[in-house]
Structure to design on (558 residues):
């Protein structure tokens, strides 16, 4: 547990867990402030979990969430007010502690000298020089100059960010590249379905970020607050400014748990789980093993979501376990999908429907989860069928697997680089921004009409790298992305329907049909998913080795 003392009245820290609260009390703290919004990270406990542990320990808790990197003056005022109202000393936390340190610095601007603020935060391990510039500049962060400058800046250290960094280094080793991401841990998120099915251990899906970032790439461990493309600048948490010649944006999606009323309060208990969170996927498997009879519901929200097949993958692996243990006849399974079809590419639907039939799963289309009452074991859906008035229905459950609503991160949606829907606005072939020609985007956050999967990012990364190198050499884009995405649907333990497709739902198989016919369940596809894809991810994709991912060239005619 890391306590970074700013003053006698306040310390700040990175993310805490409910299990840390006892140590916080023993260290003498009497109150906790949470400055991190729920749903910001895949391994993040909700404030409700922290608050419950805090109250049990006899401490006070206050929720003052601030969007990563976007600290408003009003947020700082609220933070200062909380420090006056709460019993001290107080521990404030966010992802890294930087937001909390920033809030304190701004809240003290009227009563302390800037050098005093800088000295206190520096002693705690936080550089608030950017905040000082904001204070002396009347509350605005100037971007005409920067704290650092790089040839290429990459925002996001997920699958897309590390892959494109590695691909760039392989093509042009002398580039000065910076990767911006505050996370300590990088997750192989496609593996969480397998954790929830009792096949992988959670630890197999996580590695330290520092061990994966390519050698020679500068890691800036911070969150992004804003983009200033007119100045080729990125503003970071703490109001620091990084300048770039070329920018790549790939921070992934925000899991919007709060959009479902009551969900955050009951996640991880009362039979409510989700494979979309690292710490909850083991709970999925625990519930599957414990359930002997009753009703199990699996939900899917409106698109877009990352890995559109993941909600039903959880259903298939759970149902297969109940089938193998002779319990399926006593368990009613429901798949509540906000959309109107089982899968978006029709060629794969017959095989998937056959498994839904095998498991006796009821399909409720146009059912969008809007509320959960965990203690009462009730899930409420808004039903919006075509040509019918919307209505709400409530279903009882013994187990509920939730796929949360998803959207672009807040700092993306409000940026000048986003389209009207909040996604980075790119050319779908070259992945170059439509109005800023020194900016590219890949992965889940851009607006090309493709499936949001790690397999898509694996193909996109070399395209972006190739086109950036061409741009450095004064050439037009040379590589194009065809919309490829893949979804290995785990229809039973040992068999997978390997869905591979491009723009417009066109099938794009990687293997000849006599090896793997993607429209049929395959044991070989399971072997690919279980044994081959994880090392391909860790040792090829994230290392710039582009096996079956060489970029498609743009033809001379277009």
């Amino acid at each position: 547990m890391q306590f970074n003392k700013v003053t006698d009245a306040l310390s700040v820290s990175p993310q805490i867990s409910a299990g840390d609260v006892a140590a916080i009390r023993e260290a003498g703290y009497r109150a906790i402030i949470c400055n991190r919004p729920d749903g910001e990270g895949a391994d993040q406990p909700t404030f409700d979990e922290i608050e419950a542990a805090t109250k049990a320990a006899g401490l006070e808790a206050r929720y003052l969430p601030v969007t990563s990197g976007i600290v408003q003056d009003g947020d700082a005022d609220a933070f200062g007010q909380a420090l006056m109202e709460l019993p001290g000393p107080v521990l404030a936390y966010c992802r890294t502690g930087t937001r909390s340190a920033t809030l304190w610095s701004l809240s003290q601007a009227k009563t302390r000298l800037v050098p005093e603020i800088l000295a206190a935060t520096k002693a705690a391990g936080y550089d608030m020089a950017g905040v000082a510039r904001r204070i002396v500049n009347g509350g605005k962060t100037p971007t005409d100059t920067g704290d650092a400058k790089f040839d290429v800046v990459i925002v996001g250290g997920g699958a897309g960010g590390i892959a494109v960094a590695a691909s760039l280094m392989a093509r042009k080793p002398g580039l000065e590249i910076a990767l911006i991401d505050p996370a300590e841990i990088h997750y192989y998120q496609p593996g969480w379905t397998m954790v929830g099915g009792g096949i992988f251990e959670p630890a197999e899906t996580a590695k330290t970020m520092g061990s994966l970032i390519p050698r020679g790439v500068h890691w800036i461990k911070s969150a992004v607050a804003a983009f200033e493309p007119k100045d080729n600048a990125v503003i970071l948490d703490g109001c620091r400014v990084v300048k770039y010649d070329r920018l790549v944006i790939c921070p992934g999606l925000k899991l919007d748990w709060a959009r479902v009323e009551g969900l955050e309060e009951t996640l991880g208990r009362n039979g409510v789980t989700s494979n979309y969170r690292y710490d909850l996927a083991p709970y999925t498997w625990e519930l599957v093993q414990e359930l002997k009879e009753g009703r199990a519901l699996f939900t899917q929200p409106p698109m877009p979501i990352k890995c559109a097949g993941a909600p039903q993958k959880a259903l298939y692996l759970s149902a297969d376990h109940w089938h193998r243990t002779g319990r399926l006849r006593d368990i009613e399974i429901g798949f509540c999908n906000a959309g109107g079809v089982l899968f978006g590419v029709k060629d794969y639907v017959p095989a998937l429907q056959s498994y839904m039939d095998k498991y006796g799963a009821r399909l409720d289309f146009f059912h969008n989860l809007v509320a959960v009452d965990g203690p009462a074991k009730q899930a409420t859906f808004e039903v919006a069928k075509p040509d019918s008035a919307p209505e709400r229905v409530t279903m009882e459950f013994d187990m509920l697997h939730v796929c949360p609503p998803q959207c672009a991160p807040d700092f993306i949606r409000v940026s000048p680089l986003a389209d009207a829907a909040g996604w980075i606005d790119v050319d779908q072939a070259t992945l170059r921004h439509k109005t800023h020609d020194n900016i590219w985007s890949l992965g889940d956050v851009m607006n090309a009409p493709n499936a949001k999967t790690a397999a898509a990012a694996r193909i996109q990364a070399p395209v972006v790298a190739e086109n950036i190198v061409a741009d450095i050499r004064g050439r037009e884009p040379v590589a194009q992305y065809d919309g490829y995405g893949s979804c290995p649907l785990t229809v039973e333990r040992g068999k997978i329907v390997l869905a591979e497709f491009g723009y417009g739902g066109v099938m794009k198989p990687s293997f000849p049909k006599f090896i793997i016919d993607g429209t049929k369940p395959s044991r070989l596809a399971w072997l690919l998913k279980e044994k081959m894809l994880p090392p391909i991810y860790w040792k090829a994709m994230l290392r710039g080795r582009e096996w079956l991912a060489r970029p498609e060239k743009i033809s001379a005619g277009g």
Remarks:
- The mean pLDDT is 92.
